[in-house]
TrEMBL record, chains A, B:
CDD domains linked to this entry: OAT_like (cd00610)
Signal peptide: none
Cofactor(s) required for function per UniProt: pyridoxal 5'-phosphate
Annotated protein name in UniProt: 4-aminobutyrate aminotransferase, mitochondrial
Gene3D superfamilies membership: Aspartate Aminotransferase, domain 1, Type I PLP-dependent aspartate aminotransferase-like (Major domain)
Species whose genome carries this gene: Poecilia mexicana
One annotated GO molecular function: 4-aminobutyrate:2-oxoglutarate transaminase activity
Amino acid sequence: YDYDGPLMKTTVPGPRSQELTKQLGDIQNVGAVNFFCNYEDSRGNYLVDVDGNRMLDIYTQISSIPIGYNHPALLKLMTNPNNLSTFVNRPALGILPPENFPDKITESLLSIAPSGMTRVQTMACGSCANENAFKSIFIWYRNKERGHNTPSEEELTTCMTNQAPGCPDLSILSFMGGFHGRTLGCLATTHSKVIHKLDVPSFDWPVAPFPRLKYPLEEFSRENAQEEARCLEEVEDLIVKWRQKGKPVAGIIIEPIQAEGGDNHASPDFFRNLRNISRKHGCAFHVDEVQTGGGCTGKFWAHEHWGMDDPAEIVSFSKKLLTGGYYQKDELQADKPYRIFNTWMGDPSKNLFLVEVLNVIRRENLLEEVTRSGKALLNGLYELQAQYPGLLSRARGQGTFCAIDVRDAATRDRLLLQARDKGMLLGGCGDQSIRFRPALVFKEYHVHIFLNIFNDVLAQN
Amino acid sequence: YDYDGPLMKTTVPGPRSQELTKQLGDIQNVGAVNFFCNYEDSRGNYLVDVDGNRMLDIYTQISSIPIGYNHPALLKLMTNPNNLSTFVNRPALGILPPENFPDKITESLLSIAPSGMTRVQTMACGSCANENAFKSIFIWYRNKERGHNTPSEEELTTCMTNQAPGCPDLSILSFMGGFHGRTLGCLATTHSKVIHKLDVPSFDWPVAPFPRLKYPLEEFSRENAQEEARCLEEVEDLIVKWRQKGKPVAGIIIEPIQAEGGDNHASPDFFRNLRNISRKHGCAFHVDEVQTGGGCTGKFWAHEHWGMDDPAEIVSFSKKLLTGGYYQKDELQADKPYRIFNTWMGDPSKNLFLVEVLNVIRRENLLEEVTRSGKALLNGLYELQAQYPGLLSRARGQGTFCAIDVRDAATRDRLLLQARDKGMLLGGCGDQSIRFRPALVFKEYHVHIFLNIFNDVLAQN
Ligand code: FES
């Protein structure tokens, strides 16, 4: 049901997109709008815009479309009359769940639970997933500190006005270049771009350096190991320092691959050592798989590449999973109801879709496809950077979760626009990287369509 | 299409609900689960549970169901094949909006925009609505302080590690008893219950007293005016004090009626004076209509009862609006793209539903119905508290957004369970209040069904 290639009728944005952008500009800031889409006509790997341009989508709504546009399995689900009421009546899941909720969660999220985790909490997006994961961590940490879960009178009183000890001075350690969302709690752990953080009050929480590795990783293993050791040492120093400051580190949050921050990788060893540091200092280890989860690295979770039985206390997700949420180890679950709570606690209609998405992933062996396409993509990028050493460097990736650096930001931005006008929709990340975030249905022949056209674009530059 | 009354087969939760609660308990904390629902069979004002009990729903999923369960207009929308792709392909609205987005927003949210506001930003829930509204406020405030919007080198550097001046020490003033959400930014302005806040780090932001009025308001206008004056004075004192502390108040957030905090009302005069104080001190005035918005007070927005042309800088919403978001005055819109941003920026499928909900509200004159039912409900509550003075007091309300106090928390909780076993689904709020949050299709005869049964319950106590 996929189209057989891109088809361009105008430059992008075309006249209709420009007109709609103007209209929307009276209502919102439209500075980030690329163009307007015709989602009805989009199919599989191809996004169609309102001017009839059909583009191979290698960005997929900021990496959030798991199995392409209008997948027949999802459309079919919509036409099943038994499912209608799930869309029409959004429940307050935490108090009045629908009959099929435990089964749907078991069929979907629990069937892909990370090693060692049998508990999952749905939330509506990646930010509330991380915010509530932080709260679980803080509650768990304070109960550990107290040795019991009965707060003092002073805690009960002070918390109502945001003061310690009721609202304790605890912190979450995060990494420079990390991205974990934009609500105020999440934003205190996000350090990818100035524009996200400027002018917003924040918490005095420690920020560790994330290894800046040389690629391909295999060729620079000694230098890279040194760089990783340096960062790990800094992590331990910060934990000690913040404890001394009276703001103990309750948790460490990290992405398996820093995405928004520029597709920064680290070795499985780095993560295993970091996990050990978290254990040693009694901090919860929180792996944020909002962008890496869902199969794009060739495994369902990127942390599976670390080969650990006990990878984390918390793994959060969103985007390709369609619902936000987080898995947690038993001891992290809040001790009382209503501590982790909000009106909707997710959206059962997204769980319905997720069940189907997982069926498609299994039926069509999409993780193997991703591994195959990813290999072709990365090899293609290696060849291109060999061919255009002045333009491209640092090709890297796992599965189709790939990236390459461009000489400078301006050239990167120009390449993105030129590629788009030729029917390739790509995204940037970090200061000067291009990131590849195709859907799981992006096959080897899509890789070749991309490489051919991208080659043409590079040749012009 | 509504049922003609409650119909109870078991006590609640019945055996099937208990079984499912046990099943879900292996996956999540289920301490807050009331019972499991059969949403297919629920209709209009009646929620049906998995044991076949049919209850008159006066709580409506924490006040989030606007026009009852399975409204035919919403079901019809689902069967229109033109709408399917909106459900199946959730876009990154901020960069790749669908063609009909400006029209749908114009038809829906803009058609009910508060006075003086022509700009609206959708978000996915009440928390991200408020979090992003705060960010808009902080950005606006800092640009005002600077006198321009070009940050210094120092700001650019410091913000990346959460430090001032890049992450400035600004604050939002909120009220004791207020509720604005549970993510860390929102939570710093929420002060309704200990359980929401305990153990979670927070910001040192000022908390003003909310007037504690005597009801009925008309009878105690002199005392109430004094109490309101005291609170307003305290607000000004706090603004001055926090400025001196180096943590200037950039915004004031308030609910038109404090909901979670116990249905606390204040007079239109109070809000008008508060609005003036915000102007005087250059703070943004942020009215949180997440629970009060959508028609339940008899006007679409509760702040309309204040009769002001320029009620606020920001009005946030969610729940009955089905999508979260906020309106803002032009000058509050962030100056650059990507400052207010996330992957989804709402969900167009919720906007589709909202268009239909607004059509139904207009077609069926539901605001007038609410006013009529609300009057009947409040009069009924006055009569009941006269009849049971030892049990009930402080009946209060606007539209059907009503509440009454019970002697103590234990009695309140018992009454709620007894009423539920007789087919009345009610919610609590504050320490000892019962809150009424029916859908907009709750008619006068539903009020009488409720009053009769509630009278029986009270007679037993
Ligand atoms: S914060 Fe996640 S949906 Fe609002």
